[in-house]
C-alpha cells in the first residue's frame, strides 16, 4: 500500500531523481497519509491483498 501512496510523490522530483529510491522524508509523508486513513498497519501489504474498502482508501 505504501508504494501506491508514494507514486504521488514522484511528481515532486525531476525525472532522474524519480529513478532513485525516494528520500526518507517522502516515505514518512506516505506513512502519515496511510495513518490518516487508518491503514498504517497495512503499509507493507500489496494493494491487491487489501479488502475492497481498504483499496479505495489507498
Work out the number of β strands.
0
Give the topology string: H per helix, E per strand: HHHH
Mean pLDDT across every amino acid position: 92
Broad shape:
elongated
Strand content: under 5%
Explain what the structure shows.
The protein is mostly helical and 58 residues long. It has one domain (2-57). The protein contains 4 helices and no strands. It starts with a helix and ends with a helix.
Quick structural summary:
With about 60 residues, the protein is mainly alpha-helical. It has helices at about 1-5, 15-20, 25-35, 50-55. It has one domain (about 1-55).
List the helices and strands and how they pair.
Elements: H1 2-7, H2 15-18, H3 24-36, H4 52-57
What descriptors fit this protein?
about 60 residues, mainly alpha, about 0% strand
Amino acid at each position: 500500500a505504501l508504494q501506491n501512496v508514494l507514486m504521488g510523490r514522484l511528481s515532486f522530483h525531476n525525472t532522474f531523481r524519480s529513478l532513485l529510491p525516494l528520500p526518507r522524508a517522502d516515505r514518512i509523508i506516505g506513512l502519515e497519509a496511510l495513518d490518516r486513513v487508518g491503514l498504517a498497519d497495512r503499509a507493507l501489504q500489496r494493494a491487491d491483498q487489501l479488502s475492497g474498502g481498504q483499496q479505495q482508501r489507498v
